[in-house]
Amino acid sequence: MDTHSTPGTYGECLLALPAMTSQTGTSSPIDQELPAADRIGWSEVPGRLRVAIAVAVAGAALLVVGPARGVIVSAPAAGFDASVLLLVLALLPPLISAGFIVAGRPATGAGVLVGSALLAPGRALVDAQLAVDALVASRPEFLVPTSLAPLAAAPGLWLLLGGHAAVAVAGALALGRAGAVPGSPYAAEFDDDSDDRSTTARGASLLLALGAALAAGVGLLLAPFRSTDAYVLARSVLEVPALARYGVLVLAAATVTAAVFGGGSARTSVARGVLLGATAAVAGVVVPQIASGLSVSRLEVAPGPVVALVAMALLTTIVWFLNRGEQIQRSAPSALVDATEPTRHHFVAGLLGLGAALAAFAAGTATQLRVGAGLEAPTSYSARLFLPAAVLLLLFVVPMLIPKAAAAIRPAFAAATLAIPLAGAGALDAAFTATSVSPDIAVGPGVWFAVLAVALALAAGAAAALAGVLERDDVDLTQRQVNLGLAAPLAASALFAVGAFGLPVIKAPDLVAAGVWNHFRLTSWGLLCGLLLVLAAVVLAAMSRPPRAGALLLGAAGVVAVHALEYPLTADRAASSAPGPGLWLSVACVAALLVSALVAAISSPDRR
After folding, report:
1. Could you tell me which residues come within 8 angstroms of residue 604 by beta carbon, excluding any fewer than 6 positions away?
2. Considering 76, 225, 404, 457, which has the largest number of Cβ atoms within 10 A of its Cβ?
3. Distances, alpha carbon 150 to alpha carbons 71, 134, 319, 539, in Å
4. Residues 53, 167: contact at Cβ < 8 Å?
5. Rounded Cα gap, residues 81 and 161, in angstroms
6. Residue 481 DSSP code
7. DSSP letter at 196?
8. What's this model's pTM, rounded to 2 decimal places?
9. For the segment 305-315, what is each residue's pLDDT rounded down to a tens digit?
10. Is residue 560 a contact partner of residue 389, using CB atoms and an 8 Å limit?
11. Distance of alpha carbon 93 from its chain centroid, rounded?
12. For residue 94, what are the CA distances in angstroms to 44, 98, 114, 171, 345?
């Protein structure tokens, strides 16, 4: 969507570039890709987008003024003078966006605002921890406590939170067509399908985005720095207070969303803009952490922030240059995608799924823990869930290896791959907890099979998702409507899923079960994946073709069923155990998902 010119006109412009450059000097990448006649002037920019850029600038000003006014009353001194750094990081997204708008690329500028806005809620929650308990907030760029005296929030903190709110509002205003009048030059950017990214570029970008998003998300969840200062705690997401923990989780989820959405977008301007904005927002989070590790005494740089920043920067850079000159490539016969490409991805996904299922069988049967002489090896109850998870995945692996059946079963297979991480999170949590109790307890081969199974399952899910992207190129999506007949069972599925994964499946007097809302541990990550899977399946099924919707819901039901089996398989781990509310809600969720899948399967043929 970068230009309205025909392929021939665009090619002529590119051929003329060397002469233009020799006469006028080196031109910018934007000038090289967009002829002057096709740029959108300020007068043609939608009014809502103009308001969005103004709101973004106001939000950046609040992000600077708030810390300058002071976020804590009578706060101790900061670890270093971060005023200039915070100024640059706050202004970065609106300045990048304004630069694209001035250069005649308002759609890319709007994408920058959207990308940065996705991370604003998580950043606000993290900063809100200063109002609850600043002593455990670990923000050296604002203050370094020197005692345990209580610290009260100052007006500057509310300005800071208001800045995050303004950034979120700016992104909402810039979303979509930003209120552009149909037929206007800005609306034409979204109507001209000839400028869509090629399937090859989208598929490569999406696969890269999945890997980069995983790395960036994990980096954000790790400790922000290393600390030997008793008053500046360096803790991962599992150890921070509740409000900051949810903020970091939202940050990680938003980063993954922005990376995948940008990497898989059909529009070049949207892909570039969203990734640029998200990367700038990630920099706003992690650069102060890196600077703290470099500048504050008794603090050192930790790998987490560096990994997050590098992953997003590499993804943005590669996607940017991956799409240069794509119009010319698309006009050539060699750019056409082979019709067998989705089938190859189905086969690769099936092989990865087969490896994940076999590794899961090994993890469920091999020794999880090795103990020293004279000690009794603890029973690895959590690893038992690997067996039903492997069986579930195998049920869908065989059709994935058959070309004629792979496309129909792909959504179910993609959903079922998450049963392995669900089981793996609990098994690894139990193993790591046991090894931390005594130096005489060490991990056994079952733990390494568990890690391998989780990695292969995630790779299989990514390959299946990529195959789905390639499949959609042959499907007419213009007449797609929401299936209102699924509204009731899907709503019930979503409500039951919140309780199924949020409440314990087993209850016992001496058992403190991991949860999503409290007692957040490594096991909780598996529960969170299961919950997000069901919620995503509910949303996607309502807008998908009925056969695909039914398959997706069937796979999600299988994952919830594996979760429900936690009670019969692991109830012996606690004395006087009894079924918890999560068990009955899991059963109800499975029933609701199966009903939804049945309704989707018998939907009218004209919706197929």
Report:
1. none
2. 457
3. 14, 8, 47, 45
4. no
5. 21
6. -
7. B
8. 0.59
9. 988 998 899 88
10. no
11. 20
12. 19, 6, 11, 11, 39
